[in-house]
Amino acid sequence: MSLLGLAARDGRTKGREVNLLEVKELKVHFPVQRGWFGRNRDYLKAVDGVSFTIAAGETLGLVGESGCGKTTLGRAVVRLIEPTSGRILFDGEDITEMRRSKLRLRRRHFQMIFQDPYGSLDPHQTINQILGEALAVHKAFRHPVNRRNRAEELLRAVGLDPGCLLRYPHEFSGGQRQRIGIARALAVEPRLIVGDEPVSALDASVQAQIINLLSDLQRERGLAYLFIAHDLAVVEHISRRTIVMYLGKIVELADAKTLCRAPKHPYTQALISAVPVIGPDSRHKRILLSGEVPSPVNPPPGCPFHPRCPIAEARCRLEPPVLRETAPGHLAACHLAK
Ligand code: SF4
After folding, report:
1. What is the per-residue pLDDT across 105-115, written as a single tens digit (0 to 9) for each?
2. How far is the CA of 235 from the centre of ligand 1 (A)?
């Protein structure tokens, strides 16, 4: 079965799966100059032939070490970065090469929240201006009074006091600023939110509050999320399915719980072994990977993970493994995965 044919399991329609987002063979390659006077050109393959779907109302987790391409992928699916090739379909409509003017109108359906809530909020604007701007861009609330009412409603939805509209971002804590970022994303009633490490900069107790907020909003509004993180424990908690990326490619995709309990790809196994376990557990052995992540400008031949893989065989150095279904709904790109 092809990856795209795999049904996401929690679409909002009963008995029928609806793909809100379909990503097909997406590539994002950045040109890199090298040699004397930069005469030669290489390509940094940040995203290299990635396909997946997200159903309406589903959360798909996306994990991998820093530099694996997950942020580039998240930005490319909402066209904040232009893809090199491949297709992005939102609600059945191809948005890959959609003109900017038309895309601006569609953007209200897919929004983004960022890792650094402070950096993504203009420090010179009040919360009223920040939310009002998001509303005005989409022409949803033309009248200032309507915009203000809507901004108050949004603050209540994310658990903030609507009386703080005239305050500035620096007057809030990190968790509160992330709530403002979420309110801004919600301003135009999106159907999909791409969260680029939205809780990574927060401490553990605040992380849990933001994740609970995102789950509540999903239940109330039927939102779908592409949730990007490097922490597998966080992703397991919020996602139905999880993708693991390595050097711009998907190496494993499965139901979130299955992926954490019975990973099939050696890279996923190593990531999971690095998640701290509370209490004595003699079965929990850390798998230490040798070496650094290779450069995406010059990835290794064969399986891109082979220089670090503890079970690599001779053919791994020559043949690139295909991402294939090893069990229903469980895909892995490893010659030895069963
Ligand atoms: Fe390791 Fe080979 Fe599997 Fe790659 S294909 S993950 S090198 S065993």
Report:
1. 888 899 999 98
2. 24
